[in-house]
Specification:
heterodimer; A: alpha+beta; Aldehyde Ferredoxin Oxidoreductase,  A, domain 1; six-stranded mixed β-sheet; B: mainly beta; Ubiquitin-like (UB roll); 1 helix; 5 strands; globular
């Protein structure tokens, strides 16, 4: 990968540039954040001409390394007002890698009302009028692009919420089954919409196999790495059988499952929407309990959820979405939850933000608790059509809370808090508070050690050790997010000693370099500091690294605990 | 003494979801696993009344013990 595609949406040009020396060692999140920090004025309007939308596959993407097919997307976020990296499965990352595109940087914006398809191939980018696609939701856009080219074409698209620049809008990436994966969090779809881009299509037919400097060393390391994935009980057995939704029951049993917009830590009907139940429903109906989000995935944590007639309802139906709808919104029908998930794929909004904002909307009385049918209507008819109510909802959890004058509004830096209560799982609270991305469980997944007892155990209810845990995981995650690897490699990496060295060996063999563990930690630290510096220059300070006040005021059952970290204790996170 | 045992994920296969079971006084989490035919290294997480416990933890009459194999997600 040796080329930068620099696209200008005002004059509709694409320059192909060499990779600057300073960016050579970066990929994925490290590269998108480095480029955004270097080129985007931190105080710019996220939807204005000075913001840039950056795509970068990971350092190992395109190689035979298992789990390496993730694409990072970065920009200044309209939702958080800070830097954003959101990574996705699908086919686009491996197609970029095959075309030798280390990053694509999209600048400026066209005159209002113009809509374009960006067609990306080995020669660069061409610009095609997409006015006929305006007003289509994602699955119709995918069908139109498949008809125009073939089912092999890569597609990244936005629905109407993206066109209308709603802050929960995501960028949907076609997967190999012609369904959807997402750059979900932070409103990247709104940034794409602001640049007049309805869809990007990728033709990699003239691409080449990614070059590997030392093939024998790579092959040996890749074998060790893949073995670690298959040997670890979480990635080798738990995730393939039950998917990420296996977490519903364990969070419920531990009292950390936010219920009814974060009122309670346990939910009576938890097993109706649990991973175990979902597995049995899918298996009994003839759906698929295993599915990978990209070619080369050997974990297969995803699934294809079907109805009683074996008709597709949704796929990529993840724990955080099921939690948000099934538990936090009290929608007890898994089928209803699945249909809402599919609607969010189709209209193109983040399914975490979408579920969290619905919980606040239920508290506001916009719809009754547990009303899956009305939730589905709100998605399709209000948010999906960007009506006035749809705009209040579709601009995210904070927007709903502000519009209805509520205080139990679970956000950090404007981004909805996902599926783990920070009062009863304190390590994840430190991650929510300090993440440069806003409330983001993946940024430093303390659940592994607090709840799942992977990588040791730190009691989720005590304060001691949580800041250090969150810090170490956040640094490691920033580095892993640069490789194109799926975050779940962290489970074997935390428990199997050969796993992380094998990952580093693959990077070294790919590029003919000699990184060691300290270099990787250094990379993670420098990425976090680059992102923090951008946020500070955008106007954020330590006061933004705080959880909403209601967590300090409202004890959560069954443990009846509050969020009790002092500002000074939280700020220790950044002491590295 | 009576313990409410809750099983999850693959531990449910050929067993049960939830049952009240009799155990001798001073039984440990490990003893409960043995009685269920679950090898101790298979255990991922054990919780009594929503708190993490170990194989050596002694369970007492009326408690709820939740047992998980090694699972993860996120």
């Amino acid at each position: 990968m040796n080329r930068i595609f620099r696209v200008n949406m005002k004059d509709l040009t694409c320059k192909i540039e060499e990779v600057p020396e300073a960016w050579a060692g970066h990929g994925g999140r490290g590269l998108t954040s480095t480029i955004v920090a270097a080129e985007v004025p931190p105080t710019c309007h996220p939807l204005g001409p000075n913001n840039k939308l950056v795509f970068a596959p990971g350092l190992l993407t395109g190689t035979p390394a298992a789990q390496s097919g993730r694409m990072s997307c970065g920009a200044k976020s309209p939702l958080t007002g800070g830097i954003k990296e959101s990574n996705s499965g699908g086919t686009s990352a491996q197609q970029f890698a095959k075309l030798g595109i280390k990053a694509m940087i999209i600048e400026d914006k066209p005159e209002a009302g113009k809509w374009y398809e960006l067609h990306i191939n080995n020669d660069g980018v061409t610009f095609h009028d997409a006015s006929a696609l305006k007003g289509l939701q994602n699955f119709d856009v995918i069908d139109a692009m498949n008809a125009k080219y073939s089912t092999k074409i890569g597609v990244c698209t936005i629905g109407i919420p993206g066109e209308e620049r709603l802050m929960s809008a995501n960028i949907s990436v076609k997967d190999s089954d012609q369904k959807i994966r997402s750059h979900g969090r932070g409103g990247m779809g709104a940034v794409m919409g602001s640049k007049g881009i309805k869809v990007m299509t990728i033709d990699d037919s003239a691409g080449k196999r990614v070059e590997i400097a030392d093939k024998d060393k790579f092959r040996a390391a890749a074998k060790v790495f893949a073995k670690a994935m298959l040997d670890h009980p979480v990635t080798g057995e738990g995730l393939p059988i039950y998917g990420t939704n296996v977490l519903i029951n364990i969070l419920n049993e531990a009292g950390g499952l936010p219920t009814k917009n974060f009122l309670y830590g346990q939910c009576d009907h938890h097993d109706k929407v649990s991973g175990e139940t979902m597995h049995d429903v899918i298996a009994s109906r003839g759906g698929s309990t295993k599915h990978g989000c990209h070619a080369g995935c050997i974990i297969q944590c995803s699934q294809v959820y079907v109805d009683e007639n074996k008709e597709y309802i949704t796929s990529g139906f993840e724990y955080e979405t099921v939690w948000g709808l099934g538990i936090n919104c009290m929608i007890e029908s898994l089928d209803d939850c699945a249909r809402i998930d599919n609607a969010m794929d189709n209209i193109g909004i983040d399914s975490i933000e979408g579920a969290v904002l619905l919980g606040v909307a239920m508290e506001a009385g916009v719809l009754p608790w547990g009303d899956g049918k009305e939730a589905l209507r709100l998605m399709n008819e209000e948010i999906g059509k960007a009506t006035p109510l749809g705009r209040i909802l579709g601009n995210g959890t904070k927007s709903v809370g502000d519009a209805y004058g509520l205080t139990r509004v679970p956000v950090v830096k404007g981004q909805g808090i996902p599926a783990y209560d920070p009062r009863s799982v304190k390590g994840i609270g430190i991650t929510y508070a300090t993440s440069t991305m806003g409330a983001d469980h993946t940024a430093g997944y303390s659940i592994a050690t607090n709840i799942l007892q992977v990588g040791g155990h730190i009691d989720p209810l005590v304060k001691e050790g949580q800041v250090e845990l969150s810090r170490n995981l956040s640094i490691a995650t920033a580095a892993v997010d640069s490789t194109g690897m799926c975050i779940f490699i962290a489970f074997p990496a935390l428990d199997i000693p050969e796993c992380l060295p094998a990952l580093i060996d693959m990077i070294n063999a790919r590029y003919g370099i000699t990184l060691d563990g300290d270099d990787v930690v250094g990379l993670g630290k420098s990425i976090l500091k680059t992102e923090k510096a951008f946020n500070e220059a955008a106007g954020m300070n330590n006061a933004h690294d705080r959880l909403p006040e209601f967590f300090e005021l409202e004890p959560i059952p069954p443990h009846n605990v509050v969020w009790d970290f002092t500002p000074e204790e939280i700020d220790e996170f950044w002491n590295f | 003494m009576k313990i409410t045992v809750k099983l999850f994920a693959i531990f449910r296969n050929d067993r049960f979801k939830i049952e009240d079971r009799e155990f001798p006084n001073e039984s440990t989490v490990g003893d409960v696993l043995t009685s269920l035919g679950i090898d101790h290294p298979e255990l991922g997480v054990a919780l009594v009344n929503a708190r993490h416990v170990t194989l050596a933890t002694v369970v007492t009459d009326g408690q709820t013990l939740s047992l998980f194999p090694k699972v993860g997600g996120g």
